[in-house]
Design brief:
Elements: H1 2-15, E1 18-23, H2 28-34, H3 46-54, H4 58-61, H5 68-82, H6 86-98, H7 111-122, H8 127-135, E2 138-145, E3 156-161, H9 171-181, H10 188-204, E4 209-212, H11 227-238, H12 245-265, E5 269-272, H13 292-297, E6 303-305, H14 313-322, E7 326-329, H15 333-336, H16 338-351, E8 357-358, H17 367-391, H18 396-414
Length: about 425
């Protein structure tokens, strides 16, 4: 029964116009500038494993290589050590699904033909659109947009990145913001007015939320800091004084609480990076439980917490269980670990009302990598939902409904996509 239901679930998901809940995909014009891609440039997170194996970036790995054969020799040496990881399997799915790789792995007899097919297909001017709209069947991608940058509404729904707001103690950041908005920043009050004007500009253009990824450089833990205390710290920064870390954190914490409040006032989603880091990252800093004070203080704000909080996915599940203003987002997760994704989803389905589960976010640069990630996501979702029916008393009707909700209906509701 489970296998038949699994196939039904896969067919249901393949027919959906999926909403990609977290995108860093390059713009179409950027893709055309980079095309044609090659086996060695069409990469995603496996570049991090290249670094962990060799201590080099991809550019450094291929430095000095004059031919693709030499580049293949360098990549092959890495694969001999690391082809087991999920980040590489993500690549293989892309090669098989989009570039007709007939084998389970790359080797000396097939890499060159694959490389030529990648070059040929990515040179097609319609390839970007074809992969995004026809193959992935995406309704939209909820894309992080840095300050002052644009996006392509044909493909993307904007979320405004706000880490730069935490750098307002630096003159360069203040100056760029003031020049863009046309307002002088004289104190903390005018700084927040300027930030609010920037957010309103993007909201009027269709942005659906704000995003912070500060866990890459500091703890997610923050506390409410009185306005007067934060204003005094900011005044010292304006005077050119160097701030200590405790002072900087106090200012940042104040702004984090303020930005969350602003998101609530404007009915914007507040996205926050939690969990997984880059190489050498401080993993405990990104534990989503550090957000509890903020989540409780801003109960009118819709918090969209990323990456399943992995490896703190169980903690994330309890946040979703007990905090009705928290949505749990599986973005990035399936290419990190398919087994970890299954475990997280299985527990969350037991814990969290289904309308607050977001099933897919690609979190990649190239559209081809979106599709590879989506294939992996559908496989995990089908595995989990079919097993819940077979073993955990979930009905088939509820399983099919959850598949539709997690991949389409929930993000449409959360990001208010019907208003676009």
């Amino acid at each position: 029964m489970a296998e038949t239901l699994r196939e039904e679930l896969l067919a249901e998901m393949q027919a959906l116009r999926t909403v990609d809940c977290h995108s860093h995909t390059c713009l179409e014009k950027e893709y055309r500038d980079a095309a044609p891609l090659t086996l060695f440039s069409l990469m995603s997170y496996f570049e991090r494993d290249i670094n962990s194996v060799t201590g080099k970036s991809s550019a450094q790995l291929y430095e000095g290589a004059e031919t693709d054969a030499q580049r293949w020799a360098a990549l092959k040496a890495v694969l001999e050590r690391a082809r087991n990881v999920s980040y590489w399997r993500h690549n293989v799915v892309v090669y098989r699904e989009l570039f007709d790789l007939p084998d389970e792995e790359l080797h000396d007899d097939n890499w060159e033909a694959l490389n030529e097919r990648i070059k040929e297909r990515t040179a097609d001017e319609d390839w970007y659109r074809h992969v995004t709209e026809d193959v992935c069947r995406l309704e939209t991608q909820v894309r992080n947009v840095p300050w002052f940058e644009d996006w392509e509404p044909q493909y993307f729904t904007a979320i405004l990145r706000m880490e730069s707001a935490l750098d307002l103690y630096t003159e360069q950041t203040r100056q760029s913001l003031a020049e863009h908005v046309g307002r002088e920043i004289k104190d903390l009050h005018t700084a927040k007015l300027t930030l609010a004007e920037l957010v309103e500009e993007y909201r009027k253009r269709g942005a659906r939320g704000l995003k912070l990824a500060h866990a890459y450089r500091r703890t997610l833990h923050s506390e409410p800091v009185p306005e007067a205390d934060a204003a005094a710290v900011f005044a010292r920064a304006l005077a050119g004084q160097e701030l200590s870390w405790p002072d900087r954190k106090a200012l940042e914490d104040h702004l984090i609480f303020w930005m969350a409040g602003l998101a609530g006032e404007l009915d914007l989603v507040f996205q926050i990076h939690t969990g997984v880091q880059g190489n050498w990252g401080r993993i405990p800093d990104s534990n989503p439980l550090h957000l509890l004070t903020l989540i409780h203080a801003r109960r009118n704000v819709k918090f969209d917490l990323f990456h399943a909080g992995y490896p703190y996915s169980r903690e994330m599940g309890m946040l979703g269980k007990h905090c009705p203003n928290v949505w749990l987002n599986m973005c990035w997760m399936y290419v990190i670990t398919m087994e970890g994704s299954r475990q997280s989803l299985s527990e969350w389905i037991d814990l969290v009302p289904g309308h607050r589960l977001l099933g897919f976010g690609s979190d990649v640069r190239w559209p081809e990598m979106i599709y590879g990630h989506l294939v992996m996501a559908r496989a995990c979702l089908a595995d989990v939902l079919a097993t819940k029916v077979e073993r955990d008393f979930l009905s088939e009707e509820a399983a099919l409904d959850l598949a539709r909700k997690m991949l389409r209906e929930n993000p449409r509701e959360l990001y208010q996509l019907d208003q676009q």
